[in-house]
Amino acid sequence: MQPNLITDVHTTDATVPDVKATAPIQRKLARHGVKPAEHYLDSGYPSADLITKAVKDGICMITPVLLDHSAQAKAAEGFAKNAFTVDWKTRQVRCPAGRTSSHWNPVKQHGKDAIVITFSVLTCRDCPFQGQCTTSKPGRRMLTLRPRELHESLARARAEQQTDTWKNKYALRAGVEGTINQALDITGIRRARYRGLPKVRLQHAFSATALNLIRLDAYWTDSPLRHTRTSRLERLAYQLTA
After folding, report:
1. According to DSSP H, which parts of 192-241 are helical?
2. Is 86 exposed, middle or buried (0-12, 13-18, 19+ CB in 10 A)?
3. Within 10 A of 41 (CB to CB), how many other CB atoms are there?
């Protein structure tokens, strides 16, 4: 097996959310000639925009996307967004009861394009499923969608992450967590030794270089890396079963 080496280090201020770092990391990897065919990330890094853009750049993001946060989806009762059929040509949405929306309003939300779908009060009032569909005071259902390409990309990602194939593939992400633990144990990167982002960035680069040297030495000398540490309780359980 080839050694797993760190190819890039990206250090930001603590106030920068992970999702803001995804695109810069992918651009740097592509610029250095090590663009990944598959990019394994945790749930803090993706968005519909980033997943769609990465596919166009030849990168498949293997990452759990945020699920539908509507009240119906959270409660697992009633009709979540995926229960509605979107007709992008006629700019209408059909509900599970077979009724169509009355308004299609493109808007900007948090600086991003979105579409607010509204069903008429008259349409929803006498629907036998109204109680399952909405609890709003006017008694009508509203949906907020992203533009078609982003909406369909997000829907595919949500469906894929429910499959065993995707779950087995995402298990490789454990290697990333193992690398983080190795850096914490060996180089102590949890605490910055210097003040200022440029110096901390340099510290992280040296830490990554040290890990690469350790891994290359283990590869060249046929010395396997040590197994991940286990707790005393886990070791005791292993001894009892053995």
Report:
1. 197-220, 232-241
2. buried
3. 20
CB atoms within 10 A of CB 49: 19
Residue found by looking up tokens 């909406």 in the block: 151
Q: State residue 163's pLDDT score.
A: 92
Find where tokens 């009861």 sit: 97
Closest by CA position to 143, among listed 94, 74, 76: 94
**CB of 46 closer than 8 Å to CB of 25:** no
CA distances from 70 to 73, 76, 78, 180 (A): 5, 10, 10, 34
pTM of the model: 0.76
Tokens of 199: 């110096």
Cβ-contact 98, 124 below 8 angstroms:
no
Q: Which stretches in the chain have pLDDT values below 50?
A: none
pLDDT digits (tens, 9 = 90+) for 86-134: 999 999 999 998 999 999 999 998 888 999 999 999 889 888 888 888 8
